[in-house]
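Good day; I would like, with your permission, to put a structural problem before you. What I wish to show you is a protein chain and, alongside it, a tokenised description of its three-dimensional fold. Please examine both parts with care and let me know of anything in them that strikes you as inconsistent. Thank you for your consideration; the sequence and its tokens are set out here:

***
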Amino acid sequence: MYPSSKSLKYLFNSTYLRLISGLFLLVIYYIFIITLVSENNDFIIDVSNIIGPLIFSFLVCRGAYTLLKSSPVTIWTPVVAYLLSSALFFGLGPLVYEFGNQETQEYLQRHILLSITSLELLKTNLLNAVGTLSTSGTIFVLSGVKQFQMPSNNSSNSKHSYKLNLSTVGIFFLALGFILRFLFILPHQFGLTSFILPGVVNNLGQLIDLGLTIVAYLACKQKGPWKIILLTILPLHGFSTLLEFKKSSLIISLLLPTLGAYAASGKLKKLSIRILAIALLYFLSQPYVHYGRDMVEASSGSKHQATIQQRYKITKDFFEQGNVRTVINEDSKQSGWTRLSYSGPQSFVMDEYDSGRPGSTLKDAWIVFVPRILWPSKPVGIGPGKMFYKLATGHDRQARVGVTVYGDAYWQGGWVGLVVLSGLMGAVFLLMSRFSLIWITRGELIYLPSILISIQMALLGTTGFFINKIFGALPIYFAYIFAIKMFLVLFIPKRNYQNDFTSA
């Protein structure tokens, strides 16, 4: 059953208190090594670059495990997704500099943006620890504030609840998402149309993932036709994500139905095994995605514009006998692992700020809050990734590189900027988590689009810039909330009822 407000508040407080205590000690350790240990003592620095990320990974993974074990419903919150993302990008990622194979080490040293010293790596590990400490500390402090407190188990009986059948929501999401994705979004991505799709429409395409999430839940609970629907649509949708040559689409298409199945069973062991399998798929998909993007760019000059016929041929060529092995052998630099590490870009922006050249990536943040319907000529893709790549490498290419929100925050204002902006992100994640738990406990799963945005922001947003990954997602998040509230008020009668979605 769903825990009471008091027990959930205690769960958050105790979990994050242990987390920030461990992170604080880790920060002190990093500062001690950087301040008092000579730069020439490479052995101690290398050891610190191993045990530091390992301890960091343990702390955040233990926090996520505690929340999920005590309250499975927290799987729908960005505060849990944020911890899992931190373990991946700020724990496992930097370890590639210590444990990568010889080809990987040579690649890292050759790449102008990835080549850093052991001391520079240690400083980026300190950056990540301080950023995570600030974010987690804010979550811990604000979790006791009324406006941020977790909902009680009486939320499902609230007078504001709306009766909406779970199967109805699932079919609605599935049908609308299917239409938008296959008739508008994919044709646009595949270069079959010339118009610009608003960001809201692009995000609505993920309704198909949300529909499959509910279908997966119903398939585990009720079996029957729901299992047939799941086994029919999921492979088709999965194949379409393969043709995108986009890892995030492939992973989301598998991860969300996994969460739906977990909501039905509540078995953490099964969830862990499935998430590990998805993580393994992420690594294995790297050669395929890189091959696909390179072939698309070679034929069209862009990594994204290619027809469905061209994409199908590229996929077919990749999976031809012997070709997969060739491409994987050529990928000996462990690109799946190196792409988890942002230490190189982080070190660059830290040096930029320390040298008196602070960043200004937030100066155009106001643009993201203006809807395209009010500004038809609104710039497309205002993320600074391309600008940063040119600044760091001197090459004017299509490549876009993220510096992580922690690197971006430091670039704006040093350690003070890091603490302030990371704390702001923690407040946003906690507020979104409160909203998500309220909707889940009331059974108002029509809000799943907003829940998905918050989870995606916490999972992947920390690797980019604040302007596009955090601030850029907020208008879409609140636009969904507003539109859904209007729909519920106008068309759905209020009812008091108990939802079985959270009682699993």
